[in-house]
From TrEMBL:
The keyword Transport applies. Residues 1-32 form the signal peptide. The keyword Zinc-finger does not apply. It comes from Agromyces allii. Keywords: Cell membrane, Electron transport, Heme, Iron, Membrane, Metal-binding, Repeat, Respiratory chain, Signal, Translocase, Transmembrane, Transmembrane helix, Transport. This is Cytochrome bc1 complex cytochrome c subunit. Its EC number is 7.1.1.8. It is found in: Cell membrane. It is a multi-pass membrane protein. Residues 50-129, 144-222 form the Cytochrome c domain. It catalyses: a quinol + 2 Fe(III)-[cytochrome c](out) = a quinone + 2 Fe(II)-[cytochrome c](out) + 2 H(+)(out). SUPFAM superfamilies: Cytochrome c (SSF46626). It comes from the Bacteria. InterPro entries: bc1_cytC-su (IPR009152), Cyt_c-like_dom (IPR009056), Cyt_c-like_dom_sf (IPR036909), Cytochrome_c_Oxidase_Subunit (IPR050597).
């Protein structure tokens, strides 16, 4: 009897589908849990006491001479209380800090610290007082509205950085740097911290989504160079007109003189 039951017993036609569904559910759940854990870890890195302690050691060894042992500032460097992690990530991550020499503004140079060390320094400075934090990835991914970003950039930034982000000279030896190779993270951090001579664009002035649009526009400019040939530094119609007057008309005059001399 038992043998007959085993012979006649059949697997339900939906059993395979059910097993696949269960497998997908467990796989998706495990992936979601792992992703959430990774995100939570990234968010807590800046608040980890171990990270802050390591950052304090780095700060006292490399930054305290100018900024004080506790970031309170000295006669040669400003206080860092309240500047936030974003300011540290921008200044140190672009090589501006530590400064190579005193001058009108900090110069870009090769980065002196690893990404981990920059994170540790940022964590320590962030622990001194509340300030702008490092932006999340979705705000600097270049997935915003480039057209809106171009309009916002022309209104708020082009007078110093040039419409194409080529940079420009300011007063007293200062300058607005070119944005042709600047990362989205550093562009966002510059807007919220106002480094050097740049004003601070808080969320009340330019919303986070509008900042994302500006970054999207600048990334578009970085990835799509001028189709018209030599850009002349993207400095605008004045430089282009000067080039035509000096080299274009000069070449025409030289050719005319050469033809006349040859005919004589």
């Amino acid at each position: 009897m038992n043998r007959q039951k085993r012979r006649t017993g059949r697997r339900h036609p939906l059993a395979t589908v059910a097993l696949l569904a269960i497998g997908l559910i467990f796989t998706g759940g495990a992936y979601a849990a792992l992703s959430a854990g990774t995100t939570a870890q990234a968010e807590t890195d800046l608040t980890s006491q171990q990270t802050i302690d390591e950052g304090k050691k780095l700060f006292q060894a490399n930054c305290a001479t100018c900024h004080g042992l506790s970031g309170e500032g000295t006669g040669t460097g400003p206080s860092l209380v309240g500047v936030g992690a974003a300011s540290v990530d921008f200044q140190v991550g672009t090589g501006r800090m530590p400064m190579q020499m005193q001058g009108p503004q900090a110069q870009v140079k090769p980065v002196q610290f690893t990404d981990e060390q920059i994170l540790q320094l940022a964590a320590f400075v962030a622990s001194l007082g509340p300030g702008p934090s490092i932006p999340p990835a979705h705000l600097v991914d270049g997935g915003g509205d480039a057209a809106n970003g171009a309009e916002l950039f022309r209104i708020n930034c082009a007078m110093c950085h040039n419409v194409a982000g080529a940079g420009g000279a300011l007063t007293e030896g200062k300058f607005a740097p070119a944005l042709t190779e600047t990362s989205g993270v550093h562009i966002y951090e510059a807007m919220v911290t106002g480094p050097q001579n740049m004003p601070v664009f808080s969320d009340m002035n330019i919303s986070p989504e509008d900042k994302r649009d500006i970054i999207t526009y600048l990334k578009y400019v970085q990835d799509n160079r001028s189709p018209g040939g030599f850009e002349l530094g993207s400095l605008g119609p004045v430089a282009e007109g000067l080039f035509i007057w000096i080299f274009g008309l000069g070449a025409i005059v030289a050719i005319t003189v050469w033809i006349t001399a040859k005919s004589n």
